[in-house]
Amino acid sequence: MNILKFIALGAAVAYGVSYLTKRDANGRSVVDDVLDKAPDLIDNLKKYGQDALEKAKAKAV
Prior knowledge:
Layout: H1 2-21, H2 30-60
């Protein structure tokens, strides 16, 4: 029964990778779009982290 689980998991992973790397009509994939937006996402996460630290410091005092 475990072999069937591994086959199903492998098929799901293969389909996911195929979907994420498949090119659309413009020649771009989902991965390309995410990588282009990564710097903005990182900046937003840094701001969120700084806000969380400020809130934690305010509660500690």
